[in-house]
Write a structure and sequence with these properties.
Helices cover 20% and strands 28% of the residues. It is α+β, with helices and mostly antiparallel strands. The strands form eight sheets. Strands 1, 4, 5, 6, 8, 10, 11, 12 and 14 form a nine-stranded mixed beta sheet that branches. A hairpin with a 4-residue loop joins strand 4 and strand 5. It is globular, with a radius of gyration of 25 Å. The structure holds zinc ion.
Length: 681
């Protein structure tokens, strides 16, 4: 059962040990005492973060009518704790199936970690990144801009996300044990395409000539093995938008990266309900700002529908990761280290060394008009190409849409200056920048979506300092620790395509990032501290909710919750789809984290064995309002099972589990329904 309170909750830690294995103190992560070290303490953990599966606006495409109406894949938080015995330092890396990790999420996760573990985990050494799936429920930001599609804050979704990330980290912490990490990297050529090639083309020809492709094709993979040879998981980074599922989709889905994780974890026998050690496969995001999985242009990923396009893209990423995993024999060497700073991104004086000309300044956060015409692999809120202020105003009267520019924002025709909104800006401006080294691999964690070339330039800045100290791989960990739009290069910005229009802080944002990361990399190399920077505001207590929760659930007088409305047939052939409709409750009553809304069961002697759940690829859970008299508050729950071609012949049934809320006493009660038995031949 979920508490409604959104902030200041204590994380309830499930059973376990301390996990704080003794590690030495002092010394630098890169050189010094850690040089040549190959042993780490490693732990992995996974937890459900699937929020309300009906009537919550989805996070990504900002389409008001795109609201959740079911589950195709559950969303997960995949966590790793990596500590180095040589210097006593540790970091947390999380890849979460989310559109973004908003600042409020990081603040609350760290608050709960501190309440449990004291000073062991902090902003500085916890890296939370999002896969950028566009098919999860929204409303979990503390900033107004990102709650527009949900008409305000959704406390239940926030709580499921925060608690799930926290629990995944607790598990990784408790599983900490000696092990080693190996590395492999290689290209994946046919899974991505640049969606703003005209902007990319504005980058200097001599710079473009250094690269074979207009997106980064390199997948970098870390393989985690505990002594004596127990496989515990992997992280790989590959830059591609998780937008194989389109704007019409209403099913919760981890999109292509979620599917790739699912395939790998299925192969390794991952137990999602286990509190013990289980295999975790994270497909993490990189500099995907201008990179689409829809390799045939527009919204076309090559499949006949969203599901097939997602499967195609996910399968390519899975296959490449599997081959890299099999060949990952190069050991990571060195220690763990990190530097973190908060920067007021709208107030950075950028020196000539980074502008390549006169000094410049970053700007108050604002959108250009192309942001509204859309590029998240489909038309945006303004209705596609040629968005106008009038069209926007018709949709959202809150927008005072004028296309002015400021000297600071240069080429950008401003439609919304969210940094100037009162009493609080609509998007954050004090933002976290974090640099982590895991042995010879450096992670550049940014709260932005960097375009391909922006990512390359930032990597070079960091590489210049860390390569002489032994770092061989520099990776952009995109969409990390907070979110504040895109970062295009200065040249790309001039064109004001979607990515430039969505670069909040103006033309010199990338240069400002390079300047700040130059300082972080220098400090990390020299073993010197960095000042923390300004503290970001905490808006946890400022959240309002414009949409009511579930008032009550109803059903026809003659039916009970869980009764079958339309049943299965008596028999099916493999390859056919079983479809059963139940009288059900609203999934908002309880999102059932770590649970399931459905079970496909096969008879085994006297018992029924589960063969599929609501997160399995071959199942769909669909919620639909049904207009029964007199309250109109009835729900139909449709369970579908596409019988796999390798299904074992036998007797099966479909079980639906849910929760209904009483209009009499307001209580939420669980229910369960079962279809007729049917045979699969
Ligand atoms: Zn994006």
């Amino acid at each position: 059962m979920l508490a409604l309170a959104a902030c200041g909750q204590r994380g309830s830690r499930e059973a376990g040990t301390d996990g704080g294995l003794p590690v030495g103190r002092g010394g630098q992560g890169l050189g010094g005492t850690c040089a040549g070290q190959q042993s780490f303490l490693i732990g992995s953990g996974i937890h459900d973060i699937t929020g309300p599966a009906a009537e919550v606006g989805m996070m990504g495409y900002v389409q008001l009518e795109q609201q959740t109406a079911g589950i195709h894949q559950r969303l997960r938080s995949r966590a790793f704790v990596i500590a180095s015995p040589c210097n006593g330092k540790r970091v947390v890396f999380v890849s979460a199936d989310l559109g973004m990790v908003f600042q409020g999420v990081k603040q609350e996760v760290v608050r709960r970690l501190k309440a449990t573990f004291g000073p062991l985990y902090s902003d500085d050494n916890v890296l939370l990144s999002a896969t950028h799936t566009h098919s999860g429920p929204g409303g979990y930001s503390h900033y107004a801009l990102y709650n527009l599609s949900t008409f305000g804050f959704e406390p239940k979704n926030f709580e499921v996300i925060v608690q799930g990330i926290y629990q995944s980290i607790v598990r990784a912490h408790e599983h900490l044990a000696p092990g080693h990490i190996t590395l492999a990297a290689g290209n994946l050529l046919d899974a991505s395409r640049n969606r703003s090639p005209e902007a990319y083309h504005l980058n200097p020809p001599e710079e473009r000539a250094r690269y074979a492709y207009d997106t980064d094709k390199r997948m970098t993979l870390l393989r985690f093995t505990k002594e004596p040879g127990v496989e515990v998981g992997l992280i790989n980074w590959f830059a591609v938008h998780t937008t194989s599922m389109g704007q019409e989709n209403r099913y919760i889905s981890g999109d292509n990266k979620g599917y790739a994780s699912y395939l790998f974890e299925k192969e390794k026998g991952t137990r999602y309900d286990a509190t013990g050690d289980t295999f975790v496969a994270a497909f993490a995001q990189a500099n995907e700002g201008d990179v689409t999985p829809n390799i045939f242009g527009g919204e076309d990923g090559g499949g006949r529908d969203d599901f097939e396009s997602t499967a195609l893209s996910g399968h390519k990423q899975y296959e490449r990761a599997a081959s890299l995993y099999a060949s990952a024999t190069t050991p990571l060497t060195g220690g763990v280290d990190y530097r973190h700073v908060y920067v007021k991104m709208d107030d950075v004086e950028v020196w000539s060394a980074f502008t390549g000309g006169p000094p410049a300044h970053t700007c108050t956060a604002a959108f250009g008009i192309s942001m509204l015409s859309g590029a998240e692999d489909g038309p945006g809120v303004g209705g596609g190409e040629g968005a106008t202020c009038a069209a926007i105003h018709d949709l959202w009267s809150a927008f005072t849409c004028t296309t002015t520019t400021t000297a600071c924002q240069a080429e950008k025709p401003i439609v919304l200056e969210m940094g100037a909104m009162k009493p609080f800006p609509w998007s954050p401006e004090v933002l976290p920048l974090q640099l982590v080294t895991l042995g010879n691999v450096a992670l550049v964690a940014v709260p932005f979506e960097l375009t391909t070339m922006a990512g390359r330039r930032l990597r070079e800045t960091v590489r210049a300092h860390l390569e002489p100290a032994g770092v061989t791989e520099v990776i952009i960990a995109g969409l990390s620790n907070a979110y504040s739009g895109y970062v295009a290069t200065r040249e790309e910005y001039a064109r004001q395509d979607y990515e430039g229009a969505s670069t909040h802080f103006g033309p010199w944002t990338l240069a400002a990032l390079q300047q700040e990361f130059d300082a972080l990399a220098r400090a990390l190399r020299e073993g010197s501290p960095v000042p923390p920077g300004p503290t970001p505001r905490d808006l946890c207590q400022q959240q309002s909710r414009l949409r009511p929760g579930v008032l009550l659930d109803d059903k026809p007088l003659w039916a009970r919750f869980g009764d079958v409305f339309s049943d299965a047939r008596a028999s099916y052939a493999r390859g056919e789809t079983v479809r059963v409709t139940f009288w059900g409750g609203h999934p908002k009553n309880d999102p059932r984290p770590q649970g399931t809304f459905l079970r496909v069961q096969r008879r085994a002697g006297l018992l029924w064995e589960d063969v599929a759940y609501d997160w399995d690829w071959e199942t769909k859970y669909t919620w639909r309002r049904s207009y029964c008299m007199p309250t109109l508050a009835c729900s139909h729950v449709i369970i579908e099972w596409a019988i796999p071609s390798d299904a074992v012949p036998g007797t099966y049934r479909i079980v639906h589990e849910g929760d209904w809320k009483s209009g009499w006493d307001g209580r939420v009660r669980p229910y369960r329904g079962t279809s007729r038995t049917f045979t699969v031949k």
